Amino acid sequence: MKVLIADDHGIVRSGLRMLLEQQADIEVVGEASDGAEARDMAIRDRPDLAILDVKMPKLTGLQATREIRTHAPDVAILILSMYDDERYLFEALKAGASGYVLKAQADSDLLDAVRAVERGEPFLTPEAQRALIQDVLGESSNREDELTPREQEVVKLVAEAHTNREIAGILHLSEKTVENHRSNAMRKLGMRDRVELVRYAIRKGLIEP
Amino acid sequence: MRRKNLLTQVLVANLLLIVAAVVVTGIAGNPSLDLSARPGLALILAFAVALTVLVNVVMLQRRFRPLERLVDEMERVDLSRPGSNLQAPADARGEPEEVERLNRAFRRMLERLEAERRRTSSTALAAQEEERARVARDLHDEVNQSLTALLLRLEAARAKAPVELAHELAETKALANQAMEELLMLARQLRPTALDDLGLKAALAGHVKELGRRGRINASFDASGDFSGLPADVQLVVYRVAQEALSNAAQHSGAEHVQVRLVREGDRVELTVGDDGSGFTFDQAARGLGISGMRERALLVGGDMQVESRLDSGTRVRLTVPVDLVDTGRGWKRNGHLRPRSRKP
Question: Tell me, which fold does domain B195-345 have in CATH?
Answer without folding.
Answer: Heat Shock Protein 90 (3.30.565)
